[in-house]
Amino acid sequence: MVFAHGFGCDQNMWRFVAPAFENNYRTVLFDHVGAGGSDHSAYDPEKYASLDGYADDVVELCRALDVKGGVFVGHSVSAMIGVLASKKASELFDTLVMVCPSPRYIDDGDYEGGFSEAQVHELLDFLDSNHMGWSQAMAPVIMGNPDHPELGEELTNSFCRTDPDIAKRFARATFLSDNRADLAGVTARCLVIQCSEDVIAPLSVGEYVHSNLRDSELVLIDATGHCPNLSAPEATIAAIKAFL
To answer: Can you give the residue ranges of the AB hydrolase-1 domain (predicted)?
Structure first.
């Protein structure tokens, strides 16, 4: 099982989930280049201008570790990175677990991504001008769970630790991406985990992902916010175990 973290995070975000699978799977955790304990000198702005660069890393990592027929668990943007990686090398994963995925964050015609184009650009402009302020304002909103402020604080600190220039570029690769067409060619079994309240990836997005995958199951868990791996790990683990 390969666990991939979302924007502004690192592998530590899986600490409540990954151990539940260690008895039955070889578990792999890593930091995307530019995040956590990764080698920041390996960051190439051109390569990582799109999610394909991150997907190429996943393929390279998994081939180096001789992963075949594995389970990829991707949170948020990493769900789509997993989709791209599985299409580049279909032998790697038999199963994709997508935790709060979104193939496109911007509304487009009948498609409801959750944000207008103006809202996304406003969000990116805010990040460009004030990385720390953006982190302190956005992290608690993304996390939800105001009755557990320590979770919002952890995400805030994670965002603040991210290199500002890398964060700006990764945010653009994330929030301006459109991977809707990539869903059609996925051959792996897919589990889509959707939170009942998520300001980043609303229910309409989870339903869209589910309906556009050939072999998928949508599970709605009773959780608020965009990070159930931290705020609702038991429900996340139960959904994954039931599917596997």
So the answer is: 1-239
